[in-house]
Amino acid sequence: DPVESGKRIAAHQAVDEYILPHHKAVGIGSGSTVVYALERILQKPELHHIVFIPTSFQSKILIIDGGLKLGSIEQCVPGYTDLDVTIDGADEVDAKLNAIKGGGACQFQEKLVAEAAKKFVIIADYRKKSEKLGTQFPSLKIKRRRSTRPPRIIPPPQWLRGVPIEVIPMSYKAVQQALQIRISAKPETMALRMAKMKAGPVVTDNGCFVIDAHFGPIADPKSLLRDIKLITGVVEVGLFCGMAEVAFFGMEDGNVSVLR
Ligand code: DER
What class of enzyme is it (predicted)? Predict the structure, then answer.
């Protein structure tokens, strides 16, 4: 599967280049790509003395099940940039290394741990590489058929979302209202993220809801982030602007494209 092998080669190369034997504390992101980063770390005993800081219950379980040393972000407060590096996936990365994150609804802890690190490294498969944020989600991919039957509408895959916005549960209506009338960029569509294996909305590791808001092409992610973050009830926005030092993309041809 070119997507899974893309995730693996990107993750392995990133670990080899950015997680080093002299490191003391490393942040581990969330999602499916970061699983391959753990896979590579487990292959390198010279990294097993490192304390790993999770960004979700999922990444905490990955660290524990890998038998690696588990730390907590609270332990890293003194200098606050005490983590040597944080490695994490993304939903879309533009040419300036701005990223949409939160496909796994973990963006709050991911941003906290990414900010606590001296270096923030993104790993992704080729689908996430984009010129401009918001252009990777064909809102609905229409598969043209030769026959005269109407085209089959193919909804975007799970990860092809808008900007994930984590909100305090009671505020989700107010935030949706504010997104419509209070900020300059108007969402084309937005929806409360509903759970698949549980009735009702997704509840994050922090006990919050997630609103996915599609804004179309995002020319200025930094000002969109600021506008959304200022809305009462918003906990964190899945826009990581100017944070990543490098992004590794596993391409379909088996090569890794590195954006620095
Ligand atoms: O939720 C997140 O930000 C994750 O990093 C996620 O978006 C990346 O998920 P993937 O590695 O499964 O594509």
Answer: isomerase
